[in-house]
């Protein structure tokens, strides 16, 4: 090779920007899908968290999401991706043995998909990031921000990577058993719901007055964040066939069918029992529908099954949140700010079980990379009963249940250990002064500084660039 091209990665020539194994359409779709998932977090959940909380916690809540997104990326390219998808170190964990340099990033992903490793690293990063941000939802309004800064890399390293390798990596033990988790019902939603609930126990509840009254500071802005979250789910589920395929098309359509059905079901239940159509309730129903369909992502279930899953995801999490939460002692004791346990742990568990029931073996053939015939596994119980393969159907249900138990135990144990470790270094919970002061006490900043509601602009360490000093002096004169 000409010395001037010596910098090129192994197996690439000067005219090889598009090697034979790469499909431009697949690569473009994968990058687009990943970016849509990223937008669910930034700005989607940043806006949602910042607007659905009490005004004094708007900055802190949004900032927890923004920080997690950035911190996860640095940890992910450093070691998280290799622990999750690298060569086997343990049956549930990869090993860090390859530096993510150009010789690795520009090679074909898993020697199977028609795009480079760089695209896969980016795609998997946004899933890891949103998982941590969902955990934050259970901790809003009282967790020490420094403790959160420590929690994010620790939980990513010791919990997320174990679940991701076990279920998503072809060498993972649950993956080899045939667990179906199309887009993260187990790895993301069940994990975040259980981890958030567990962390909320260790951090403790919000201030009494916040827990008694915690109104959203901007419902319209909340809807904007929720809308970004919903539309971003197109990439969340549509990207997991790892190709611009008919399976991706089916996944996208049925994802939105399930979400809409769940939203409407939740809305009708609110009207029936509370006589008022709640927009916050409808948003919760939208989320539970999106979470429930995610393990199946409609790529392994048919459209009618997606509707049934939407009906159930609108009913069961509603019941656990609105009825059981007020009766079960443990649920009443733990302060889960955004009800992450119900919207993600309950809905994720439901989705995992329904996937095991409704998984269509013919559709699974489009998605799975099983080394043996799809009919021998990935057969939902409903199709097992219909096709005379009852054993295969019950086996799939058993594997799904095993995956649920594993993820729950993993996250309860690891999250508890991480919280106990952090507690030795810094307090998990904000001080009483900070709990009372909110954003101003914690960050020296406020989300809304309006003269009309009696607020005054305060001096921030960063606001003088925009005339903060002059504004303060003007108000002092007034």
TrEMBL record:
Using the UniProt record, give the first listed, main subcellular location: membrane
> What sequence ranges are listed for the domain Ammonium transporter AmtB-like?
28-448
Q: Which SUPFAM superfamilies match?
A: Ammonium transporter
* Gene3D superfamilies attached to this UniProt entry: Ammonium transporter AmtB like domains
* A Pfam family of this chain: Ammonium_transp
Superkingdom, taxonomy of origin? Eukaryota
From the Swiss-Prot or TrEMBL record, state where the protein is found. Answer: Cell membrane
Name listed for the protein in its UniProt record: Ammonium transporter
Which stretches are transmembrane?
28-50, 62-81, 121-140, 147-168, 180-204, 216-236, 248-272, 279-298, 304-325, 337-359, 401-426
Q: Which family does it belong to?
A: Belongs to the ammonia transporter channel (TC 1.A.11.2) family.
Q: Give the GO cellular component terms, alphabetically.
A: plasma membrane
Q: What membrane topology was assigned to this protein in its record?
A: Multi-pass membrane protein
Give one GO biological process term: ammonium transmembrane transport
Q: Which UniProt keywords apply?
A: Ammonia transport, Membrane, Transmembrane, Transmembrane helix, Transport
* PANTHER family (UniProt xref): AMMONIUM TRANSPORTER, AMMONIUM TRANSPORTER MEP2
Is Ion transport included in the keywords of this UniProt record?
no
Organism, as annotated: Penstemon smallii
